[in-house]
């Protein structure tokens, strides 16, 4: 049963998205209204209707479009949906203005509960990695496997390039940054983001660059754009300072789902040195190291990430092989170079 047919969301508003939002070949967009939040959902038609569901969660400043290429790579093994977190992509802000890691995780859980798609193969990048870690720890019944690409888990010594993102969460800094950069073009902004997020920005095609420029131009017109960015950045910083059972590393230890960890050697935002700690924290983990990748390996090396995910499926209940407790470190030297 599709989510638009599900009785659990029949009372909520489900309607097509605006034509101004880019929809890739084979994709569709819809909006799902839930109590306190409305989420834009990007989906693909699966090769078979009996394939297990997958849900993808993007990072800070990103959108469901960040997963389009990887989703297409996995058409034959999962039924893919990617959501725009509240205040990002084509999703409006949450009614309560809560952009914390917990608030975003609550939105993901609310969606999965409403449409009844769980348990899903859950994917998260950066901020989305922290969010999905919290989801997997709090609601193991909703998660089959967990794939984390450069997850934003607490670091004692953050990357120097990540400092501006942390500062964005300081009250007033977003407004100051907006004034200081008001003359910047969308092309300049996108170029800066890609230089920060990609291990090799030259891998970005001219078409992909232009698509990103058009999407940014659209989102800069939204009155809540910078507020969503600043509050979500503050949410990451606050999550880094939490201890006890609510700490993200403690929650990582509670994750029961088989976990694929993907780290890039050229990541300027999440330290590559954190890969080993993550592999120890998640009890059933596999580590994919990509020396040439940056912060968004699923966009830079989608074929390699897709292959690693297929291997994760083969290692789990799909093949009947019990690998609980194992840590497999797969390093791909010069992937795609």
From TrEMBL:
Species whose genome carries this gene: Streptomyces yokosukanensis
Residue ranges annotated for the AB hydrolase-1 domain, each copy included: 55-300
Name of the protein this chain belongs to: Hydrolase
Keyword line: Hydrolase
Spans annotated as Disordered: 317-337
Record SUPFAM superfamilies: alpha/beta-Hydrolases
Gene3D superfamilies for this protein: alpha/beta hydrolase
Domain of life per record: Bacteria
Biased composition, class Low complexity, residue ranges: 328-337
Single GO molecular function: hydrolase activity
